[in-house]
Amino acid sequence: MFTGIVQGIATIDDVIQAPGLNTLIVSFPEGRVQGVETGASVAINGTCLTVTRQEGSQLHFDAMQETLKTTTLGELSAGDGVNFERAARVGDEIGGHLLSGHIHTTAEIVRIVRSENNVTLWFEVPGDWAPYIFPKGYIAINGASLTIGDVEENRFNVHLIPETLRATTFGTVTEGDKVNIEVDSQTQAIVDTLTRMGYGRPQQAPE
Fold this sequence. Notes:
globular; Elongation Factor Tu (Ef-tu), domain 3
């Protein structure tokens, strides 16, 4: 499990491609892989991956075909920055919300609004996932636990403070970039249950 509190930015050193498999070789900031062993779980841009090898501050991960198809990991190349979070341990503070590291879909950044002290990012998700997106609800974007702002059909935004921009890759994103999305598990369970009972998505109150 993960908390959605990104622990820093790591760098892709190399991507070794093989049939149905990409091996990601990732360099982490000094001291961030202390105690990591082969078999440990680390979230890379929100995707739970297993450490297959360690060389100093460099970790190796294998991403299978299904992972490459569902996430943005197949688009990574040497030099790219990625958000990372090591798996939570019993007793750790949950500063965001509980995440599984299993990506549901991807979204495209369709608009970036910059103001003096924050940045607002607008995302577009596939229509099938729009029912799980609610104002003030939780969502994980590239592994970061964020609060949803406004929702317009299958588009939504989040507001990012300077610290979030500094500690994650959101500070360097551009329009057209794709991100990994993990919807809140409790929201998904409630929506699915109501759908099975024949209830549609609640209508938003008129402004």
